[in-house]
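Deviations from the work plan: none for this task. Representative record:
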Amino acid sequence: MNKNAIITLTLAALPLCATAQHIKYTPATSVLADTIAGRNGSVDVIGEGRMNKGLVINSLDAIAGQAAGVVTTGDNRMAMINSVRVRGTTSLTGGNDPLVIIDGVYSDIATLSTIYPADIESFAILKNAAETAPYGSRGASGVIQVTTKRGRAGKFSISYDGNIGFETVYKKIDMLDRNAYLATAEALGRYATDGGYNTDFQDAITRTGFVTNHHVAFSGGTDEQNYRASIGVMNHNAPLRNDSYNNFAAKVDLMQMAFDNHLTIDFGVFGSSQSNNNVFNLQELLYSAATLNPTFPNHMNAAGGWDKNATASQINPPGALLGKKNHNRNQNFGSHIRLKADLGHGLTAQAFGAYTYNSNENAKSAPTWVWAQGQAWRGEMKQETWLGNLSLNYHKRWAARHDINVTALTEYEATKQRGFWTSVKGFTTNALGYDNLTGAATVPYGLTGSGYDNPKLLSFMLGAEYSLLNRYTLNVNARADGSSMVGKDNRWGFFPSVSLSWDVMKEPFMKRQTVFSRLILRTGYGLTGNLGAISSYNSLNMLLPDGAIPWNGSTAVTYSTKHNVNPDLKWETRGTFNIGADMGFWHDRLIVTAEYYYSRTWDMLYEYDVPVPPFTYDKLLANLGKMSNKGLEIGASVTPVQQRDMELNVSMNMSFQKNKLISLSGNYNGENLTAADITSIGSLNGAGFHGGNNNIVYQIVGQPLGVFYLPHCTGLTKNADGTYSYAIADLDNNGRVNIEDGGDRYIAGQAMPKMFLGTNISFRYKDFDITLQVNGAFGHKIYNGTALTYMNMGAFPDYNVMKDAPKARIYDQTATDYWLEKGDYLNFDYLTIGWNVPISKTARYISSLRLSASVNNLATITSYDGLTPIINSSVVDNTLGIDDKRSYPPYRTFSIGVSIGF
Amino acid sequence: MTTHIKRTISRLVLIAVTISASTVLVGCLNEDPRDRISADEAYGTADKLLLNTVGTLYNYIGGNADSQGLQGTVRGVYDFNTFTTDEAMIPTRGGDWYDGGFWQSLYKHSWTASDNALYNTWNYLYKVVMMCDQSEKILNERRALLTDAQLNEALAEVRGLRAMYFFYLMDMYGRIPLVTDATTPVDSIRQSERSETFRYIYNELESVAPSLPDVHSNLQNDYYGRFTRPVAYFLLAKLALNAEVYADDDWTDGVRPDGRTIMLDVDGQTMNAWKACQAWCDKITAEGYELESNYAANFAVHNETSRENIFIIPMDKYLYANQFLYLFRSRHYNHGAAIGQDSENGSCATISTVRTYGYGTDSVDKRYAINFYSDTLRVDGKIVKLDDGTPLVYMPLAVKLDLSGDAYEKTAGARMSKYEIDRKAYSDGKLQSNDIVLFRYADVLLMKAEAKVRNGEDGSAELNAVRSRVGMSPRPATLKTILDERLLELMWEGWRRNDLVRFGLFNKAYDQRTPLDNEQTGYTTVFPIPEDAIYHNANLKQNKGYSD
């Protein structure tokens, strides 16, 4: 048998093999070709052609909106992507980030964000259990496999990619300016300080952003040995002042064959250094900029401080806040080596080893004009990971109809994490920032510390795939993961999966029809485990420093457990069923894929509320609850025009998601424990919002995660003095309005979209092409807490208000559904025009040249009234679904790019 | 054929090697914690055992988060005992201090069982109770490490502290479960009647007192900040004084047992509650406590030498994390700026309080100027200005519960003074070095005066000792003058709710407050059992008068 064929087939079966992540696909340039390749099996592969164009400075931007069921959220293409969700949220406490695998090495989203999009050959997105089960616990929330570019046989080549772009803010909140502010105060008979200026603080904190991006790659070699090396630098000054990102990355990959090509050696080294200057507290800065008295100056006073509006205690002069620093430095180094031996007779052995080092340093300082004595923080987290695995693969094909492929794998991963942090205060100068902590008078107890942990994971896996007549394929997988973090008796989790596919086109009866050009049906079921909520030593009865006390004449530190110990912690498990079809019509001019999935999470890890007494602490991390997720993902790709000089492609993906928190109770140590049915997740912040009934988004048993649970406002009522308040309905008809949880509140909608849409339209005419990407989200709501706050005349004149507020005369900031709005939107993500400059075949040095111009964040269509509907609508945290004075000012990016091949 | 077999064998060997290599690795799943210690390390010697069972409990007397700590923090024990009374309030000041109606609900008594701070306070108090149970268990398990004297003293201290936490729980929540075993399962937790809890706490304190060190723990000695014998005596006196309240199992029926018929034990002698209270007060006097000649010295930045303070939360801005937010949250913004610190412009005295002090009359109590910032404010001799250039004038009589839109929205109310401002305070003024006073001797004298009056005796000597210290003229001791004196003397010290309940005034109209519709039954004299506590433990029954 042909050896190459064996290798190819082995690779095709490789969802089986845990680390050698090469999904079979052929590099291609057209959108359509990628889609075809990508739908081989149900693994969605996004190759270069399908990656986003426009200005892409973060590798995850490259797939935003391109894959059904994958939602990326970040602050509009800032260097740090906040999160990625594959098929939504499946766990309450943690581990919702998909596993990122870069060239076989387990990694994370932060590291992926440092890799240059130009270095990436493809993204493969694994969503179904049968695909992710081979990764056991790590793959519970989906897997993004990233394959970086390798050297290719052929002549030596150099390529350069560069962009340059400007970013301008195009929308801000309409607040009262100086004259209107003073006039309003006068009309109300309220005293307002006149600082003598007319400052638009929202303008004062923004600037024209600037992005530059350069990337050079070299490659060359033969079939037996090749290499690729690349280096990239990126600099991004975002439109908010003091918000900037720098990234530098270098990468080398080598491939060498030996012993008559029986042994293949892959070796790779990657290093990156990222430096981010973040806004210290986005909400504080934006809230202050919007509401500070507009007659105040935007410069320091003669005494070298900032004039503070003394009656507005919750805000500070934005100029002073910009003096706060929050800097992050992230250094990565990774190397891996893979030895693959072809032992003959269909047997392949593989050994893989990887070492990665990550250092994350955070340094912050707050000057004396923000914090009376000034304060500075330094912290560092260093992580080293060793990963090794051995696998054996056996492949056999006989009688032209049977094909079997078996893989056995064992894998060990050990991580060492060391952290150190300190915080000091008592500065007399702001000049030192965080660079010389001895400038501070005190190092308070408890603010300096260090930590160490060393979690380990050991896995065994056995997988087999059997294919009959190239039509019917059965895939069975079993993986056992053992983790050092789980309770001693529950250390091992067992995660099997099974999947079936049927290539209908290969059936004789399909030969005669001409409509279908492809038809594959598939289904699968599998279990995955998740330990995201557990950290090292959680299940052990260990003691931590509790605090310093006076003891026998001096100061001593005491120790206690500090949390309820649960020695029975075990794996959170999720079972996923999926069924789907890939259909191609008329020679694949139209391709449609559809997939339905249903997953159920059980033994769900969560910090359950437990009764005190008998527990000491009111939370217990335990495996009790249940949650379900279901959804439908539809992808369609059509090529209405396909000629030599002209081609039009339209592709679209839609994903419908439905999540339900089934239960938060269960049995613990023979006692039935329940957690609160109604738990608030997110509330409003700002003046007058501390505590009280300002909770907006809740987690409610029986509902999707993140629902709005609010009092119902029947309208505005006019008070005796001519002002207005929100009229609140007595929903439970008990004759009394009570807006506490469980009182007059109702479920008013969900924070997570029911449907996501991604659309890509590309058109090529001769050497010119134009691409438009439109993304959208539907079916969810947004709480406009910004408007609730800025429309409340009760806060005036301490806090500035919106232009419409004096006329509306609302003197109320009770959170009701009055400010709950539809969150549906369609966002024109980018428009790119490119020109592939024709290069004469005889040109000596240049082989290709492409020029492009893009606009990112072209426009948003929405009925939402606030700054932007693109807020956090997918990650379950305290910002989910709430627009609360923290929306990054929306900005547009204009950029030009050039790509040259030598 | 043979080559075939050979190959098969070599494959099997390969598989075997892979599997056995993997098996070796199974041993590699053991944890090796380095940044925390095991129980054997923490409790392995006598010194460590005492530090980590007894000492660790002292991390929780003060606090640095909402609802944590007995005093110094917000939305906890102190606030529920202060802003629910005629002593002080936090009015809504426009955009500030509405906070979902929380502060107004305290003043109006319209709190409900779903109040979050009430639940957090319950969890805080019981957390320390359970830590005490745990410490008691560990001390007993490892008693071999200790001498009998050490063990005896340590167990007494743990039980004494636990009794004190039960005292706060009983005082606030009425019917509470007495959980004294760390291994109690959820379903065997039951509430005790209030009288039963009262007897338990009393007996417990009485029985541990002799084993406690006989030391003034407010002084910076080896027992600084700790639960020593005089602290136990103070609580015993408090319990005896409130015996009519605590021995009453149904506080909504309008009848209370008579203190003269409630018999308590003091050192083997049985006497009525009023006599018992006096006896415990006398024992405190015998410990050598006396009134400081200077009232304010008890609250100075360096108040560790006070001869009057009995139980304090040790504060040191350099060493401990405990916070003191009360000055910070009371003073006006410009007031904070004038002393180089921050502020929240919130809490202030009620009108009835400043009237009791004689504010606006010719004879103002001498303690008024110490306890309050009032009228035109001067810092370092200079008048503090508002942003409009006019002087900052605190308006004690302009207070109302909702000041929004009022001309004195930001300046109404006499503000908290009492504790000396630590001009070198950290955290914008939240971290001072003044020890927070929980129990002090002036209260002992007033308790004794009241016990005497309630028992038909003359309590004038004790009352007037307190008055003459601050240069105030004598008054005859009556329940009325004693209650007034308690306000004058103990303002901002967290006892007002306890006093009003005992005097039967808590559920009545006072200051600007009108009682709730059905409040005459007295159901608001205890707080509701938090709804979430009942949700997690169905055995708990709600207090009378509160709907579930």
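The radius of gyration of chain B is 27 Å.
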